Amino acid sequence: MEPNLRGEVKLKVCLIGDGGVGKTSLIRRFVFSEFDERYLYTLGTNVSKKEVTLVWKGQEVKATLMVWDIMGQKSLKHLFTESYFKDADGGIAVCDCTRTDTFDDLTEWIENMFSGSGEVPITILANKIDLRDQTRIEERALAEFAAAYDAPYLFTSAKTGENVERAFAKTAELIAGRAASLDPKRDTEADDSVATA
Fold it and tell me: Which domains are seen in the chain, by residue range?
């Protein structure tokens, strides 16, 4: 991640996970502050964008998050590895906290992403936390899974908006922090990277 002469940068963030976990709804909530009760079926890939502000190496940077959404059919996962994940700066792996099978499938989704993008920063989300009485994924299990990828995790709700802004901001922050750590010109002082929508 290197800002251009105007201090701007574009970041490609890919959402991954099974169909029906709420990837499209999370994006709509983040980008448009909207929620639709109907199931939003994604055909192929869709790209949305939203501008956020990053503090990167002590400098305020305008970043445009290019948020990529993908259809979640398990049988088609391998088809998107190269084109979907190419040049990704980071990812958000989403499961449905009411369906343990979607949690179990995250490993394959993440490994597919890493094979196409390299080991970029990711954030792990257990979505639909508004259905608390139906939750089947324990926080301890989610925390252990995220720790294996050195990733943060959050319980989110596209319906209520709970932790949605925070999830995308955290992902942008991770990308900025990784870029700063890989920069050979980086100052020896610690860098605080914060994202705000």
Answer: 14-49+64-162 (3.40.50.300)
